[in-house]
Amino acid sequence: MAKPKTQSSSSRDAALIRSAHEVLSGKSKKNTLARLVPFIGPAIIASVAYMDPGNFATNIEGGAKFGYELLWVILASNLMAMLLQSLSAKLGIASGKNLAEHCRDQFPRWVVWIMWVVAELAAMATDLAEFIGAALGFNLLFGIPLFWAGLLTGVATFVILALERYGFRPVEAAISAFVGVVAVSYLIEILIVKPPLGTVLYHLVTPHFSSAESVLVATGILGATVMPHAIYLHSALTQNRIVTRNPRKQRLLFRYELLDVFIAMGAAGLINMAMLIMAAATFHTVGLTNIGTLEQAHQTLRPLLGSAAQWVFGISLLASGLSSSSVGTMAGQVIMQGFIHRRIPPWVRRLVTILPSLIVIGVGADPTQTLILSQVVLSFALPFAVIPLILFTRRRDLMGTLVNRPLTTALASLAGGLILALNAFLIYRLLLGA
């Protein structure tokens, strides 16, 4: 299989790969932190899906309505996400193929085509919502009309995706920088609102629901935890990045990837917690429990915390939208190549996804509602990614020395079953209004 463009043999990538193999061979003279550096990156890109504009909407709603009560939900969902993303990374390392490619090889052709269509719809829905989230960021920060903000978003994501021609490291660096902007933004927000630490820690480790409505909001947070396009993408990011077929080196490589997952997904979890804490400390404590849109949250921050907090919120939303939109396009490439063995230039896919986004903006659709509807589409697609992932990673003929232990498969099945059940419940409540 031809390597994707992100694995092009730039001198920087080649040096990183050599450094990684020196570490795996035990020949590296570098310190512990320097030895870790070559392996950091894939999980950071995948983690962007866990701090996209859709997360902004659900976390702010949860904090505004129920204060700190649902912090434990974010912690639990983040732990499940770590487990499933690590399985995706392991699949790419062990087999040299990504999840979509394994689906193409293992399932009947008619099943593969159905899975491809569902995965493409999920990737497009994700890209649509994240594109609109970035456009909303431009709109809130600079007052640019949403349509023109959408065009500006398209240009910005074209620039980010153009970095692929220089190898995988520049793309990882760019995405990491956006993640850093979101993280710093919410660190500033937390410093501004000064939440009660004792209360935060209590609700972080104490499962509790105060009402039936809090269960529904928790379902929205948990049910949208694992993004199908992130699962497909993570296995592709590891399959050709650092390649070894030596069982001992594969085990060591996977340990380093686990650290990558822990760091990246841990940061994503902290950012999501910070979103909810900010909403709880700012809105819930003064009785503003009906903050239902990102625009309301942005406008309300100014009189409560000042213009600095308002600007920080807008910057974090913009960084989240731009990075997640770029990652969504990358995932779409992986899905098409994996399922039907076809590739189109990233700029073509980006152009195609811009058009429906601009149409949605042009007809005046509510951005926050668009984000919520995208989560419903993702919920439909989730079983098509989670179930094959668990099935493949438990097979020794595919995974070799990295095959799942029985306990790992049991935990992944439990987490996957819980997430799928919650997604089904969320779809039922949103679509049927039950």
Q: What's the overall average pLDDT, rounded?
A: 84
Largest sheet: none
Element pattern in H and E: HHHHHHHHHHHHHHHHHHHH
Count of extended strands:
0
What's the end-to-end separation, in Å? 48 Å
Q: How many individual helices?
A: 20
Share of β-strand residues: under 5%
Residues in helix, %: over 70%
Relevant terms:
434 residues, mainly alpha, 20 helices, 0% strand
Structure characterization notes:
This protein is mostly helical. It is built from 20 helices and no strands. It has helices spanning 11-25, 32-36, 42-47, 53-66, 71-95, 99-106, 109-142, 146-162, 168-193, 197-205, 212-223, 228-239, 247-282, 294-305, 307-340, 346-362, 367-381, 383-393, 396-399, 406-432. The radius of gyration is 21 Å and the shape is globular.
Give me the secondary-structure topology.
Blueprint: H1 11-25, H2 32-36, H3 42-47, H4 53-66, H5 71-95, H6 99-106, H7 109-142, H8 146-162, H9 168-193, H10 197-205, H11 212-223, H12 228-239, H13 247-282, H14 294-305, H15 307-340, H16 346-362, H17 367-381, H18 383-393, H19 396-399, H20 406-432
Helix pairs in contact: 4-11, 4-13, 4-17, 5-10, 5-12, 5-13, 5-18, 6-15, 7-8, 7-15, 7-16, 7-17, 8-15, 8-16, 9-13, 9-15, 11-20, 12-15, 12-18, 14-15, 18-20
